[in-house]
Amino acid sequence: MNNADIIDVLQKAKDTISDPAHWCTEYSSVDAYGNDAFVSDREPVAWCIYGAIHKVFTDEGWEYNTVKRAKAAMCDYTVDKYALVASTFNDNSTHQDVMKLFDDVIEELRNGLEVEYDD
Questions:
Q1: Do residues 21 and 46 lie in contact, with contact meaning Cβ atoms separated by under 8 Å?
Q2: Chain Cα centroid distance, residue 4
């Protein structure tokens, strides 16, 4: 698997939630009223780390294994560095921390980080 594809998915997911108004905690995505919203059910307006990655998959039609590897890269990094899965990191961090996490994982991938994931 080419890290360039994973980097592209992560960069687009980061761009999706770069405005704090489009980032959420506690849910994968929320609607305009702050209610839990599945990407395919209602019109979400904010996403968590994983929700943003899933939005990129849904909007752009990425191969599902690429999306799973992007999620795995985020989770592997947060577990190794913070002893937290990415969703817990998202829910217990600031928006700025989440943006930095995306930057850190993308940088690690550019430096050759191997994503451990079984297809």
A1: yes
A2: 16
Distance CA(110)–CA(74), nearest Å, equals: 14
- At residue 76, the pLDDT reads 92
Q: At what angle do helices 3-16 and 64-82 cross, to 10 degrees?
A: 80
pLDDT at 113: 83
Question: In the chain, which stretches have pLDDT less than 50?
Answer: none
Give the separation between CA 12 and CA 83, rounded to whole angstroms: 25
Interhelix angle 3-16/49-60, nearest 10 degrees: 110
Q: Tell me the one-letter amino acid at 90.
A: N
Tokens encoding 74: 């985020």
Both tokens assigned to 2: 């080419």
Enter the pTM of the model.
0.91
**How far is 37 from 56, CA to CA, in rounded Å?**
16
Give the C-alpha separation, 66 to 63, whole Å. 5
Specify the pLDDT at position 96: 98
Alpha-carbon distance values, 107 to 3, 24, 50, 59, 87 (Å): 11, 24, 18, 24, 20
